[in-house]
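User: Show me a protein chain along with its predicted structure.
Assistant: Here is one chain, sequence first, then structure tokens.
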Amino acid sequence: MRTSPRYRAAARMIAAIGVVSLAAACAGAGTGGTGGTAGGETGGYPGQNITFVVPFSAGGPTDTVTRMIAEPMAAKLGGKVVVQNVEGAGGTVGAGEVARAEPDGYTVLMHHIGMSTAPALYQNLGYQPLESFEMVGLVTEVPMTIIARKDFAPATLQDLVTHVKANADKVTLANAGIGAASHLCGLLFQTATGVKVQEVPYEGTGPALTDLVGGQVDFMCDQTTNTSGQISAGEVKAYAVTTPERVKSLPDLPTTAEAGLPALEVSVWHGLYVPKGTPQDVVQKLSEALKTALADQKVVDQMAKLGTAPVPAEDATPQAHRTKLEEQLGTWAKVIADAGIKAS
């Protein structure tokens, strides 16, 4: 599958402007001369640029959420944030790099639900979510949408189910790669409908959505942060949102329960991580900066336009994040085992 020149150019542009400028850059930022290290003095943190690693492609939904909160977080911290995309293997390449990074608070991971599915999918993961990271806090929980190319024949979700069952060997279901949120949602769709379709994996959500809009694949399931614009513009056909309640920015889009497929219910939660051993006062500073960012009205408004919202302040904490991760690890281990799926 090809990607459009417009997407590739946009991705390069986004990557090129990865440094988020701040109003309150601290003295000596970028020099590394005053940065704290594991077990050392952290009172001057941050004393150099902080790198936020996004383990997925530029322009994708997780990248979008990261860039929303990066500037207000860094303004609170008094430093600079560089957003770096390290994609590959369903987010495990970027997550692995952060797990092995110096535990000094200068390398921060933004990951989504894939953190809880990776241990069940990958036999040689190289890290363990609960043992290799310190949790900083949850960020947002994003609904997903079931969408199709705009000229796809089925008009409703029930029509889609009927069509898929009758044409399972012909219908193509796009996703951003094994372990990606779109892959997990597609897996749940197939489980809920009892039918296996042809899956078309891409290296990122952006290329998958580009080909869907271009009519090269039939349908996919992806986060509202990535699909709201195309739905509102009429570039894709939308069938349902995968949460118990409708999304305010897409009020006419029914829930999967309303549309006749209640077994398909999933949302994509995001959280921030740092390497295990990062000083607790640094973790706390990052958590407080996260709370500040999530309360920023600009962030609230940006998320609302994309069909999501910041988590409550009590969830933007290390303990709430750990509790969520522990619960999700158990849930997805069973789902993936039952499906018999393994990633290489």
